[in-house]
From TrEMBL:
Protein's UniProt name: PLP-dependent transferase
Lineage, top ranks: Bacteria, Pseudomonadati, Spirochaetota, Spirochaetia, Leptospirales
The family this protein is said to belong to: Belongs to the trans-sulfuration enzymes family.
TM segment ranges: none
Species of the source: Leptospira fluminis
GO BP of this protein: transsulfuration
Amino acid sequence: MLKEVQEPFRRVCGERIPFSNVHAVSMSLPLVADVVGYEEKRVETLSRLKAGYPRFIAHAYVEKILDYNRERKGIEGPQFIVNSKKAAEHIVDLFGISSASILEDEGIVTLVFPDNKEKELEVLSFIQHTGCLVSSRKAEDYLFKKGLIDSLYSEETFKEEDPNASVCKELGNLYPGRNLEILLTTSGMNGIYATFKALDEARAKEGKILWLRLGWLYVDNIRILEKYSRGSRIFHEVADLSELEEFLEKEGNRVAAILTESPTNPLIQVPDYPKLKNLLDRYGIPLIADISVAGSAVVDLSPYADVIVESLTKFACGNADVMMGAVFLNPKSEYFYFLKDRCPAFVESPYVRDLERMAYEVCGYKERVREIGRNALILAKFFQNHPKIKAVHWSGSEENRENFSKIAREKDLHCGVITIEPGIPLEKFYDSLELLKGPSFGTEFTLNMLYMYLAHYELVSTEKGRAFLREIGLDPSLVRISVGRENPDLLIEEYKKALSD
């Protein structure tokens, strides 16, 4: 299985991951120089990309629609293909864009406005952070109807009468007796944004406007709170809640909500959720938990969180070929009915073909994470005992073991993501590693990523930024490993070679 999945094109920059899938959400970046070229937007790197994570790189089918708009419809200036008219109207209102046009054609919505570089960059960032983009399958159907492509990509799906209900049923089965309200979204980040907007609206009316982040979170979770809240604050210490407790004693009456990740990305840290829940209940502060790094089949945050958000693009999908997210609203939350009523105003609903593909893939969710978790345990122990690895961050580490066990569904079930700190030069390790390397995680095949380079290049690439990372305990050379289902002995052999003299 290792050779079948990892061998083709693993050394070629820009190839799709998965390679033969036109809807792939990752791409191969086999060298550190490729990662740097991608982040610095060098032509020699970007021109080789056949795919990319859709919130950051427009899919080839979306680019084709943009070209069609320019050439056949005469559209000039900034244009953005978004998921719905609702999303376009929200962008126009949020950024006060004057003279904007919202064009609809065969279900494809294009937002157009006069040249304004500042507004263009704001909208690009908003689409990246909040995931309101159009699906590659929706774009594909449009192009096929217009005669701009000859055929549709063939894939296995469950073509049911209501694929949305089918996916929700599979996810709901992971939470028996909890009666969670499940909303499917175009991406995990759209789920975060929708929850944030709805809850922020409710809490602001109570005079509570400060949003808290516990731990170093995924880049777009950070950006949503930094850019779109009325104020935010981070607490870097996850295991020790004393700093948070002291802050709440003084400012608890101003706090709107707190956002956590379970575990955090990339350090796989887990707070003591029973203790955190008791602390937040003291001040009536709702908790949003992003569980994407582990997934609903591995962890259960329903006893503690008012809202659970998951990127289904990851472990629920397993094949890195569907953009989708899920919001789980907890009926035990005092905000349940408000969120149930208000979240849909900001939720972007997935396209039917994406739902059909996800309905097929989610059926293998539990089996997938069990096998991946077993491999993660084996690999983590290998890295812990290797003299050229400085640190290993995983769900079974001494730091995380106890707290992770409080949210894990099974005693020996581990998160499928491991982050390591190589003790040898990064280029030597990364460039020589003969495994897939690119963004995203949760795949059935092992995928390695230079997390800090791809998520926070502005910090990695400057001395001031590196000093800040050292201060908060983040190694710029972190390698995040999404463990796959391959033979772990074969995986270990590849890591041994990359770490050898």
